[in-house]
């Protein structure tokens, strides 16, 4: 029986899982398709994370450094699993870099893909330079200045549109992306910190700053940072004669049409299933659920099981998820994988 | 060095942690203040759980049975930790049943307390028999019949009031209880399944059916089960001359006062910090955060650390949490506790 754990994906979930397994002195093979470890927070240049307030490069960077220096962790960057066979305790994977990995269990921490805002064309992304995504504003926060891409000016009025690629049946995204409300409230605070004269408006259907995020982000963004929340249906984003953006729609609280000038419009983009999921499902022989995320089994005594024994799945591969939960899923899957292999060895002995 | 793990609390979090540790053949001492294991889902008689749809007594019952039959798990029911001392690898706890526990690490899975609806008196709980809590309706679902407590009749009109003891600064509950929206949508479906002629109304500020709960609960409860969602500020619940309840407030979408007759009013009660938290903090020497939940440390490379080394905290002890997340926190804490003890033993050797 082989007790190496193969972990696919080196974002917060995979890094956490790798640390968990390695902390028991067990062997890990960690594979990521990108040349850089850290997943979305690093690759997309997130700024300060919710809810710690730590910079992503520090927080996730620390997770990366710990795994890179752990004895017993073999890392394959820029590599994919191209073939996979076997059963619990005796899996064999072939990687795109030619390596063969023998493993007792597999953890799929393959994450999500950011919604591409070009698929919501009426809201102006891809048409107007000053319509950007939350990810781009995170990068501006990291750079220390909020600007309009068209001319570099500091925007007087910023609109953050929630649910871009979420809760939207028209474009086949029925799910809520869970963390965009809180991320947007945090971003509104960061914009006001960098640029206290900029007015920030958040256009929403429901504000979902669940749990302790309620007062930390929703209330604080309103009371300390004067963010204006507007319950609205946004119909379209166009450009006025003066070159400013125009946000058109209906304020659903006052039931009136609105046409509001804005300097910068920010799409709070949702979390799609990883674009690679169909091939991941095929290579590993696991099922997808109806939206295209990886499917999971029983929730209580066999949580994080995929549809294939010995293959575990967690984090944002299961659906939209926040980083804290991803970190906990990684450790939990490490526990499950190591525990199940222990039971298997015991049975065999 | 002692490598037994002491786990305090045998709800979903503690049971999951106990299984994790035991799955490696390590010793666990599991302590719960109640005579029954299973935590809130068992003690409060939850019906079908979100999102699995499994009955709580089956799902959590399976977790209990597995831990009770695991070799190496010593269980103390109806017991509390009354004294605690030591350091990682060498803690000593004294239990109220007189036992002494030597442990290398401690997992606090001490959970929450349901908000007592009597503390929101203007909404009628404690005054009118037909004002009940979600927990009481869960018990009706388990019993197979939805009734008005006053006379046993099947209600024609049921109102579920969200945010009872949540998002309410007036009564010192600033947090959102995270899962009540989804639990209430699920309950609306269950009421309609048992009593198809009953009209169900949900009065809300924001609907927070995050992630994949959006279409599974919010949309389905509206489209398949005709639940009516009303965005409103509820001012008070009183009784009319005919003995029916009257819900008074303002519909915040149409901006009009409302006075609506109801047969049954259900308080979707929130999650308070465990009432025992001040004494838990004192006995274990750990900090509370500002709302009274247990405080936690760094989120990325030392997640689930409390303010005392070797003592871990997770689940709804940290704040309002859903059962799936509690189960994952339990396994994650097991991984952390066992991993940190492994490192400690390695250092010592």
How does this model look, in words?
2 copies of one chain form a homodimer. Chain A is α/β, with parallel strands linked by helices and 349 residues long. Chain A is 28% helix and 27% strand. Chain A has 8 helices and 17 strands. The first copy, chain A, has helices spanning 12-22, 40-43, 56-68, 134-143, 180-194, 213-223, 277-284, 323-348, and strands at 5-8, 28-32, 73-77, 81-87, 90-95, 100-103, 105-108, 112-114, 131-133, 157-164, 199-204, 228-239, 245-251, 256-262, 264-269, 271-273, 311-313. Chain A has a 7-stranded mixed sheet. In chain A, α1 (12-22) runs parallel beside α3 (56-68) and α4 runs parallel beside α5 (180-194). Chain A starts with a strand and ends with a helix. The relative contact order of chain A is 0.18. The model of chain A has no long low-confidence stretch (mean pLDDT 97). The interface between A and B is large, with 69 and 69 residues.
Kindly list the characteristics that best describe this protein:
homodimer; 349 residues; alpha/beta; 8 helices; 28% helix; 27% strand
Q: Looking across the biggest beta sheet of chain A, what order are the strands in?
A: 9-15-10-11-12-13-14
Low-confidence stretches of chain A: none
| Content-based structural category of chain A | alpha/beta
Give the fraction of residues assigned to helices of chain A: 25-40%
Name the assembly state: homodimer
Distance between the amino and carboxyl termini of chain A:
11 Å
Q: What is Rg of chain A? A: 22 Å
Q: Proportion of β residues of chain A? A: 25-35%
Largest sheet of chain A: 7 strands, mixed
SSE pattern of chain A: EHEHHEEEEEEEHEHEHEEEEEHEH
Mean pLDDT score of chain A: 97
Which chains make the largest contact? A-B, 69 and 69 residues
| Number of helical regions of chain A | 8
- Total number of beta strands of chain A: 17
Shape of chain A: elongated
């Amino acid at each position: 029986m082989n007790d190496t754990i193969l972990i696919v994906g080196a974002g917060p979930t995979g890094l956490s899982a790798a640390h968990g397994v390695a902390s028991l002195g067990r062997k890990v093979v960690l594979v990521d398709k990108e040349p850089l470890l850290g997943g979305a927070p690093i690759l997309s240049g997130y700024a300060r994370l919710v809810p710690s307030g730590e910079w992503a490069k520090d927080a996730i960077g620390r997770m990366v450094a710990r795994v890179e220096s752990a004895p017993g962790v073999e890392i394959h960057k820029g590599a994919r699993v191209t073939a996979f066979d076997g059963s619990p305790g005796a899996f064999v994977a072939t990687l795109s870099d030619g390596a063969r990995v023998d493993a007792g269990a597999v953890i799929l921490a393959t994450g999500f893909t950011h919604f591409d805002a070009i698929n919501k064309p009426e809201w102006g992304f891809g048409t107007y330079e000053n319509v950007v995504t939350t990810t781009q504003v995170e990068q501006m926060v990291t750079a220390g200045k909020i600007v309009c891409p068209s001319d570099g000016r500091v925007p007087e009025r910023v609109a953050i549109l929630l649910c871009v690629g979420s809760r939207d049946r028209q474009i086949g995204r029925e799910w809520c992306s869970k963390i965009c409300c809180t991320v947007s409230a945090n971003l509104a605070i960061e914009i006001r910190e960098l640029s206290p004269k900029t007015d920030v408006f958040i256009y929403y259907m429901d504000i979902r700053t669940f749990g302790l995020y309620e007062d930390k982000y929703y209330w604080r963004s309103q009371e300390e940072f004067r963010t204006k929340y507007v319950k609205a249906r946004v119909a379209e984003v166009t450009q006025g004669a003066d070159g400013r953006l125009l946000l058109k729609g209906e304020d659903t609280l006052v039931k009136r049409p609105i046409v509001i000038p804005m300097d910068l419009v920010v799409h709070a983009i949702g979390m799609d299933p990883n674009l690679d999921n169909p091939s991941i499902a095929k290579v590993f022989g696991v099922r997808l659920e109806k939206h295209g995320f990886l499917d999971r089994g029983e929730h209580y005594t066999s949580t994080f099981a995929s549809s294939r024994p010995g293959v575990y799945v967690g984090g944002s591969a299961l659906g939209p998820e926040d980083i804290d939960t991803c970190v906990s899923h990684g450790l939990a899957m490490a526990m499950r994988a190591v525990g199940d292999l222990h039971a298997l060895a015991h049975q065999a002995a």
